[in-house]
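Feature request, filed as a ticket because there's no other form

It would be nice if the structure record came with a short human-readable summary line next to the tokens. Right now we just get the raw output. Example of a typical job, pasted below so the devs can see what we mean:
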Amino acid sequence: MSLPTLILEVRTPEGVLLRQEVNAIRAEDRSGWFGVLPSRADVIAVLPPGLLAFRDAEGEGFVALAGGMLELKHRVCRVITLEATVARELDDLADALARQSQRRRDRAEVHRGVVRDLAREALRRLLREGA
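Raw output as currently delivered:
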């Protein structure tokens, strides 16, 4: 006899990162860790940056989240976050988070460059208009 399941869906601005049947979910909100089972009443929670764990037919899995919202409604658990990384092993998750952190630093550097270029152009225009 198979265990009852629910659907875990993790969404980022890029789209659905994960959608699969799971038996249980553990997540954390401001008050601490809580469990989500197929029999749980509907719930909405604000998730701080951290970890969400799930159990499915293959075993345990993890989702590192940049914070977000969790909504459980009719046995569908939707998690909405700006960034997330999914892994089966915590070591794999650590490596993926290091790569994600580097990408974030790279994007920030590009944005700083754009702001510097815009500031230079604004100063040039001001100097031309003042002359």
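Something like this underneath would help us a lot:
The first strand starts at residue 6 and ends at 12.
Helices lie at 90-130.
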